[in-house]
Design brief:
There is one protein chain. The protein has about 230 residues and is an alpha/beta fold. It is about 30% helix and about 20% strand. The protein has an eight-stranded mixed β-sheet, sandwiched between helices. Helix 4 links the parallel strand 5 and strand 6. The chain is globular.
């Protein structure tokens, strides 16, 4: 356990978690079935922590891994830009290549196993990815412990060109496993996007429907300027 006095979220328990020789801080809170929440850019902001608290209040154990940025720091344009640049050059994240799973997903799968054990080991785990990490929720769902994967605005790989705009950010083997689980009703896959989001084009959701079948749940919110 890390020093609670120096942590940005004293109501969470901050612990170092090591898997595949990689160590990252994870913020834990709550009781009940486990949900792993992967933060959006630029990092674990106060708003992201508040979202995690809402999940805890709904009756879940939350594992909130610190994947990038500075935990607790408020959002700013400069901070977002700095975090994205660091994410793009990091070997842990695949930001432009197609048909590849980000290496950090292996570490997150290890965290899923840890969260499942801490929550009692008798239920599945939910995973939530947001924007930069949105597609990770699908890649992590290769693990049969994951029963619900929520992809909120999955933006990787960055949509420069039509091929990248339709890519799902995981390799063919992982995609086949996830599709099999969704079609067999062993996994609930939900994805959300705003229709005018330049980072998440309609073609990515069309590809999700094509690969995952009728069991895939798509939520597309009309964000056109004339929609009140």
């Amino acid at each position: 356990m890390l020093d609670a006095m120096s942590e940005p979220f004293p109501d969470f328990t901050a612990e170092a978690f090591t898997h595949n020789n990689k160590t990252k801080t994870v913020y834990w809170k709550g009781t009940g079935p486990a949900v792993v929440i992967m933060t959006e850019m630029p990092g674990i902001t106060p708003d992201v922590a508040d979202f995690a608290r809402r999940v805890v209040d709904a009756g879940y154990t939350v594992a909130l891994p610190d994947l990038f940025g500075e935990a607790g720091k408020e959002v700013s344009g400069r901070y977002i830009g700095e975090s994205i640049i660091k994410g793009c050059v990091s070997k842990e994240f695949v930001t432009f290549a197609t048909g590849k799973t980000s290496p950090v997903v292996g570490w997150i799968r290890g965290l899923v196993c840890e969260a499942h054990a801490r929550a009692g080991g008798d239920r599945g785990v939910g995973v939530v990815g947001m924007c930069f990490t949105g597609g990770f929720a699908l890649a992590v769902a290769v693990d049969p412990l994951v029963k619900v994967g929520v992809l909120s605005q999955p933006s990787l790989p960055f949509g420069v060109g039509k091929k990248r705009q339709a890519d799902l950010g995981l390799d063919a083997q992982d995609l086949a496993k996830v599709a099999e689980r969704v079609r067999a009703d062993d996994l609930c896959a939900i994805a959300l996007r705003f229709t005018n989001d330049p980072l998440v084009r309609a073609s990515r959701f069309e590809r999700l429907r094509e690969e995952l079948g009728e069991a895939f749940i798509a939520v597309e919110i009309d964000s056109s300027p004339d929609n009140p």
